[in-house]
Amino acid sequence: MFDKIRFRMSLSFGKPIIGREEEAAVLDVLRSGILVHGQKAKDFEVAFAAWTGAPHAVSVGSCTAGLHLAYVGKGVGPGDEVIVPAQTHVATAHAVELVGARPVFVDAEPRTGNIDIDAIESKITSRTRAISVVHFLGMPVAMDRVMDMARRHKLFVVEDCALALGSRFKGTHAGLFGDVGCFSFYPVKHITTAEGGMVITKEALLAERITRQKAFGVDRTVAERTIPGIYDVTMLGYNYRMSELAAVLGIEQLKRVQGFLETRKQNYACLADDLRAMDHLTLLDSSGGDAESSYYCLSVLLDDTLAEKRFEMVQYMKERGIGTSVYYPQAVPLMTYYRLKYGYRAGDFPVAERISNTSIALPVGPHLSKEDMHTIMRTLKEAIAHVRPFAAMFSSYGKSTAPALLTGKRVVLIGGAGFIGHNLALELKSLGADVHVIDGLQVNHLLSVVASTENQPNRTLYLNMLHTRLDLLQKAGIPLHVKDARDYHALSLILGQLNPEVIIHLAAVAHANRSNKDPYSTFDHSLRTLENALDCAKGRVKHFVYFSSSMVYGHFEQGAVREETPCEPIGIYGALKFAGEKMVIAYHQACNLPYTIIRPSALYGPRCISRRVGQIFIENALRGEEIVVSGDGSDALDFTYIKDLVHGVIQVLTREEAKGEIFNLTYGDARSIGQMAAMIQEQFPQARVRYEPKEALMPDRGTLSVEKARRLIGYNPQYPLEVGYPEYINWYHRRATYGDQK
Ligand SMILES: Cc1ncc(COP(=O)(O)O)c(C=O)c1O
Questions:
Q1: What is the pLDDT of residue 402?
Q2: Are 184 and 294 a contacting pair, CB within 8 Å?
Q3: Residue 665 and residue 498: Cα distance in Å, rounded?
C-alpha cells in the first residue's frame, strides 16, 4: 500500500525549518518588549559577517531593500546605466529603476544560467556605472572575470546573493568580490527570518551610509542617542530596518546553516545523478572547478518534445504532492513594465527565454530526504510518461536514432486498436511516423464486450479502458479505419488508398485458452486476416511485421528458448501462430516481401483487457478477492512490460538488420507465478492466495533468450517484473485515486 502513503505526503518546493530554539528566541524577544532598535539585529550582523568572512554586514528588511540601498549608497541616479542579468528575479532590476537609473540587460549563458560575461562588454557605455550579477540558483558567477572587466571600465559591482548563501568562488564567499553583496531570508531561502535581508561589504563608509539610510537617514541609532528624542536627519532615507523578531530567527537559523547546506548538496547530488542519465532533459550545471554552489534547487530544461507540456507536468507532480517552481518565469526585460518602457521584444534574450520557457525547478531543501529525492525522480518520470506516453522510456533505453528514421513514414497497424496496437501506434506517432490503424473493434474490443451476454467481470472498467484507447488515438491524430480485415475487398481497398510503407499485423484472438475453445473464430481472425494482409502487401510494402507468440515453442524443454529452438506448438493458438510465421516466410520466398517476425510473451501493462494472470491478480486484490494460482506457483513466464515490447518494435522498424529475421521480444528472464503472487501480497498484505490445477494444453514455459535482438537490433529491455509490475499496480491505483483515464 506504498501508493497511499506516497500520495498523502507532501514534498513542498521550500519549507522553513523552524525548531524549538527559534520559537524560544522569538518568544523571548516578544516578552522583552524590545521589538526593533535592539541588540539582536546587531548580533545577527556580527554572526553573519563572521560566517561569511565579511568585514561589514548590515541587516535590512529584505534583499530588495539591500539592493536599493546599495545603489543609493553608491550615488547611482538618473542618467546612469547599470548592467543587469536578463535571467533573474525582478528585484535585481527594480533596485536600479528605484534610483532612476536604467537597467541594461544582458542575456544568460546556457551552461549555468548566469550572466553571459562575454556579452557584457559590448553593453558598456559612458553612462554605465555598475555591473550587477546574480548567482543564479546558487551557482557562483566567475567573479574574477567580472571584477577584471569592472576594474578596466572603472565600474562598481553589486552581487545579488539572494540564492547564494554558502556559495563560494575560489574559496571566497559570494558577495565579497564586488563592492556589495545582498542576501535574502525570505521563507524558501537557505535560512529565513520570514522577511529579511543582509548587505555585506568591504567598505566601512558604505556600510555606515547604508546603516543610516535604512533608518530614515537619521544621524545616530537609538542606542547612540544619549538624550532620547535628540537626533538629526542628514540625508534622505527609508524605513528598511530588520525587526528584532526577524533578527533572532536569523541568529538561530545561522547556527544550523552548515547542516542545511550539506543536506542540500547531498539531495542535489542524488537527484542529479539520476537526471543526468535521462534524455529530453538538460541540467543547469551547478558546481565544479572554482565554484561551490549553495544548491538552491535543481532546474531541468525540457527539450522541445516536452516543453509545451511543462505545466501539465507541473500539475501532475503537484497532484502527487510534489512542489516545483520556475526560476524565473519570464526574462525580466520581457515583463510588461520593462518591455513597454524600453521596447524589448521576444527573441532579444534567447538563452534567458529558453530557461524561462522550458525549465522546471525541483526542490532539494533540507526539509527533504534522499528517499524524497527518489520519489521526486520517480514522479518526474511518470509525469513525462503522462504527457508523452513512452517518452520516458527512451531515456532509460539509451539514445536512439529512431525518431529521425521514422519521421513521415506511413505505418499501418492491422488490429491496431488492441492492447499492443494502440500503445505502439501512440509511440510511433509521437516519434513522427504517419500512423493509421485498421481495426474491426470486434475481437476483445468494444463490439464483443458490449454484445456479450456473459457475466463479465469488470465490464464497465474495460469499456472505459477501450474508450480511453480510442480517445488517445483520436487526440494523437491517428486515423482509425473501422474495417474487418477478414473481408479481403475492404482491406485491399483501404490499403490501396493508404499505400503504407510498413504493415504491422496484430489482428488475432490473442488468448490461448479462448482459442482452444473456439478454433474456427481463431483461424478466421488470425490466419485469414494475415493471408489477406500478405496478399495486399506483396509487391508494395517495404516491411511486413508479423506478431507471432512464444506459444509457437510449445513446452520449453530446457533453459531459455532461442529463435532457432525447434517449434512444437501445442493447441490451436500456438499452431495458428506457427502457421502464420510459415505463411509470412513463404510470401517472402514467393514474392520477395521483406518481413520481420516477433515473438512476445506474457505481456502486461496499462489498458490491457485480456485478463492474463498479472491483471487478474491485481483486480482481485483491489476488490479484496482471493488470488487464484493455476498449478503450484512454480510455473515461470517471461513477463514482459508493454514498454519493452514497444521499444523492441521501434528497433525492428528502424534497423535494416531486422529484415528477414525472427526475434524474441520479451524481458528475457522468466519469473514464477509464485513470485508474482508474492509481489501482490507485498502491495496488498491482506490478499489470500489459492492454488488450483493447471489448464490442460498449457505448455510449460520459461525464459525466451533475447540475445539475438540485443545483438542485431540493439534491443535493450528495462523492465524486470520487479519494476514493471509495481508500475502497473500503481497505474491501477491512480485510476482509483484520481479517476485518471490514461
Ligand atoms: C535573485 C533574487 N534577488 C532578489 C530577490 C528578492 O529578495 P527579497 O524577497 O528578500 O526582497 C529574490 C527573491 O527571490 C531573488 O531570487
A1: 59
A2: no
A3: 28
- For 346, counting Cβ atoms within 10 Å of its Cβ (0-12 exposed, 13-18 middle, 19+ buried), the class is exposed
Q: What pairing do the DSSP bridges indicate for beta strands 281-283 and 636-637?
A: unpaired
**709 CA to centre of ligand 1 in angstroms:** 54
CB 87 less than 6 A from any atom of ligand 1: no
Q: How far apart are CA 129 and CA 155, in angstroms?
A: 5
Q: Is 607 within 8 Å of 643 (Cβ atoms)?
A: no
217 - beta bridge partners? none
3-state secondary structure of 692: strand
Indicate the pLDDT class of residue 395, thresholds 50, 70 and 90: low
Give the CA count within 13 Å in the CB-facing half-sphere of 515.
Answer: 23
All domains of the chain, ordered by start, with CATH? 2-13+257-388 (3.90.1150.10), 20-255 (3.40.640.10), 404-601+640-669+699-719 (3.40.50.720)
Burial class (CB in 10 A: 0-12, 13-18, 19+), 232: exposed
Q: Are 331 and 87 in contact (CB under 8 A)?
A: yes
- Dist CA 161 CA 175 (whole Å): 6
Phi and psi at 173, nearest 5°, equal -65, 145
CB 664 less than 6 A from any atom of ligand 1 = no
Distance 152 CA to ligand 1 centre (A): 29
Mutate to test the pocket of ligand 1, among 59, 60, 62, 63 (most ligand atoms within 8 A of CB): 63
Contact 397, 718 (CB under 8 A): yes
**CA pair distance 485, 504, nearest whole angstrom:** 13
Q: Report the DSSP beta bridge partners of residue 130.
A: 82, 156
Contact 670, 601 (CB under 8 A): no
- Closest ligand 1 atom to the C-alpha of 134? 1
Residue 208 CA to ligand 1 center (angstroms) comes to 23
> 401: alpha, beta or left, given left = phi > 0 and alpha = psi -120 to 50?
alpha
In the sheet that 502-505 helps form, which strands lie side by side, from edge to edge? 480-482, 434-439, 410-414, 502-505, 543-547, 595-599, 661-664
Q: Which whole-number Å values give the CA distances from 137 to 161, 363, 738, in the listed order?
A: 9, 11, 34
φ, ψ of residue 485 to 5 degrees: the values are -70, -5
The alpha carbon of 184 and the centre of ligand 1 are apart by a number of angstroms equal to 6
- d(Cα 602, Cα 637) in Å, to the nearest integer? 7
Of ligand 1's listed atoms, the one at least distance from the Cα of 64 is: 11
pTM: 0.61
Q: Is the CB of 59 under 6 A from ligand 1?
A: no
Task: Assess whether pLDDT exceeds 90 at residue 150.
Answer: yes
Query: Is there an atom of ligand 1 within 6 Å of 702 CB?
Result: no
Phi/psi at 109 (5° precision):
-100, 145
Q: 62, 68, 89: which to mutate for ligand 1, most atoms within 8 A of CB?
A: 89
Report d(CA 141, CA 691) in Å as an integer.
66
CA of 91 to the centre of ligand 1 (A): 6
**Cβ neighbour number for residue 487 with a 10 Å cutoff:** 14
Return d(Cα 728, Cα 615) in angstroms, integer: 9
Residue 223 has pLDDT above 90, yes or no: no
**pLDDT tens per residue, range 282-333:** 999 877 789 999 999 999 999 887 888 899 899 999 989 999 999 999 999 9
Q: Is 163 near ligand 1, meaning CB less than 6 Å away?
A: yes
